[in-house]
Specification:
The protein is mostly helical. It has 3 helices and no strands. It has one domain.
Amino acid sequence: MALKVFQDMWNSRLQLDTIFYTILIDGLCKAGHIEVAKEHIA
């Protein structure tokens, strides 16, 4: 779900800030998706 929201926001060209990325990466890590979170860091 979170990745779908991220993709929709990215596609609509919204300016994503550090708070958004922090929440996304934190949620992915807590859900056990460490490798996916790493992809969004670089």
